[in-house]
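Bit of a strange request maybe. I'm writing a small parser for structure token strings and I need a real example to test against, not something I typed by hand. Could someone generate the tokens for this chain?
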Amino acid sequence: MSTEFISFLSPPGDAIANYNRTLSSSDQPPDVPSIFKEAMSIREEVFVNEQQVPLENELDADDARSFHWVVYASVSNTQGRSSGDGRKSSETARMPVGTVRLVPPPHPPHPVPGSMHAIDNAEAKEPKTNGEEQNTSMRHGNEPYVKLGRLATLKPYRRLGLGSLLLNAAMNWAASNPHAILPLRSPTTREAAKVDGTISDSEETWNGLILVHAQDSLKKMYAKYGFIIDEDMGTWVEEGIQHVGMWKRVELRTT
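Reply from user aminoacidic:
Good idea to test on real output. This should exercise your parser:
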């Protein structure tokens, strides 16, 4: 789902294996997908430069398996060749100004209330399955969910609706592609997993449940999109910023 003003990157996997987390996005090797480098350039500006997240923590264990979106602004460049009357001609270029990602299941356990840790999954915690995740009042521990995060827009382009564009693009895509979120297993693989206890019936399909780890200052924004705070998850601190868990369920569109 890419257009002139928004690009989509399916999970890059090994394509970002050579990404050096200690270097900026502009200094990465050429084999790293350009869309991913664009997303990282925005995240570096917002999370690293503005919010003081350590650069080495910005790339995390979930990036390779996540779906990524980048939104662009049209920027005029007047440094082109001169026209016949001596005036500079104007050229328009696309500039990456916003990004978001969607992390499919499974996930590490929810942060412990009152805890302090690195941003998202910078600590590369192991995902938990088969009932090892805790229940909350808004989600049974076995139900698969996607995690929406790393929403960022460059400061000059905020309050222009780009965050809304990104959130809606990600949620609408997920609602229309549930089998990309959680691919169907073959009958043989499914039965074998049930026999050895690595999966239960409730973990078979994604039914539209979305989680955000919302910064405290963004709770009201996410609430406008239908996300509800899960009081059972409490609050915790990521990179010095207080967060809460918020859930939303989208209606799947499979036809």
